Amino acid sequence: MTTELYTATVSATATGVTSDDGVLSLSVREPAELGGPGEATNPEQLMAAALSSCLVESLRIALGTVGGSVDELAVKGTVVLTDSDAKFALSVSLPGTDNPEAVLAQATSICPFLKVIDAVDVTLE
Question: In this structure, what are the phi and psi dihedrals at residue 39, rounded to the nearest 5 degrees?
């Protein structure tokens, strides 16, 4: 039997998103490049932020098991929309880590978002 550890609930409207605890409250608009008004966070930025920050937390856990510094850890998330689909990419920087490939492998295996989203290109810088 699985045990629920945490539940996040966010409500979206035509003008933005708000978390049930009120910590997250953002205006969200379609980017101008896609015909929207722009001038606010857009769903693609939120997706890149969610993927990047989720992998950062998983990398922190992985580094905690093998030892290593999280001080300069960085993940750059990219979402590219095409006329037929979307592409997701994460670029990881683990300076000062003795075995970055092993840390990245462990982190990607435990990252909840990467478990449910296929075809995310994850590379080590």
Answer: 60, 25
Are the CB atoms for 100 and 94 separated by under 8 Å? yes
Question: What would the pLDDT profile of 77-96 be if each residue is shown by its tens digit?
Answer: 999 999 999 999 999 999 98
Q: pLDDT per residue over 44-74, tens digit each?
A: 999 999 999 999 999 999 999 888 888 899 9
d(CA 62, CA 101): 11
What would the two tokens of residue 82 be? 């095409």
Count Cβ neighbours within 10 Å for each residue of 67-98 and write b for 16 or more, e otherwise. ebeeeebebebebeeeeeeeebbbebebeebe
Tell me which residue of 104, 103, 101 sits closest to 90, measured CA to CA: 104
DSSP states along 40-101: SB-HHHHHHHHHHHHHHHHHHHHHHHH----TT-EEEEEEEE-SS-EEEEEEEE-TT-S-HH
∠ CA 125-92-71, nearest 5°, is: 105
